[in-house]
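Fig. S4 source data, part A: sequence.
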Amino acid sequence: LENSRQHLDYINARYKNGQASENEILQVEAFLSSVEQAYETSRTQQEAAQALLNNLLSLDKDVIVEPVTEFKFTPKDIAFDQGFLKAMQTRPEIKQFEAQLKADKSAIELAKADGRPNVYASWDYYGRSHSVTTTVNTRNWNDYNVLGVTLSWPIFDGWQTKAKVEQALVDLKQTQLGKAKIIQDIALEVKNSYLSLKNSVDQIKVSQADNLFYKNNLLTAEEKYAQGQVSLLDQQDAQLKYEISVFNQQQAVYDYIIAKFNFDLVTGGFNEI
């Protein structure tokens, strides 16, 4: 903002000396207006973020929290296939569907069991008349054993059993379809988060290259200013561009941290950044 105001003062001075047109002044004024709007928006966002942080930390509203560290990261090679495999092993939705599949298969077997025959066997001994001595018991001719076998077949319940089996099969099919759908959804989530993470790494590389360029540009501008080859405003422009490149690099690292968090979230676990 201050740099834009200095540019406006500079162009006004040139205009008075007949070295700049009125249109150039209007362009700088329009640019200054947009910078002022962006400044006010940034200040409002900062105040809102500060209030939210104080609320989360249960701090007084007047307490100002100043960050003292910078975003850091160590880029790692991450493969989509590995992330998807991990998601299949750790996502609770997959485990839930696997448990439901087992329950549905058990329900089918229980439904089938209702239509199967039951066999009951029994044995008994009858002694109608026999003499008992003090030494030994003897069996008479009219003593006998009885062996019984009962076969129970639910013939009239057959249609009911068939309906239960068919419903259990439908439930199993629905669970299988649900699992297939959730696998597709998870694959899409992993793919999108992987691409976002990959893009954030690329952005860091770009921001690092820009930062190096503007740092060298600032050093050159400072040397030329010391030698009287450029104006103070030129040197300040170089300083501003370098500071913007530093901010962009920090923003890229922040975006990477968020992308890495989202990737770990959709793959079912958290790793070191």
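Fig. S4 source data, part B ends here. DSSP finds six helices and two strands in the chain.
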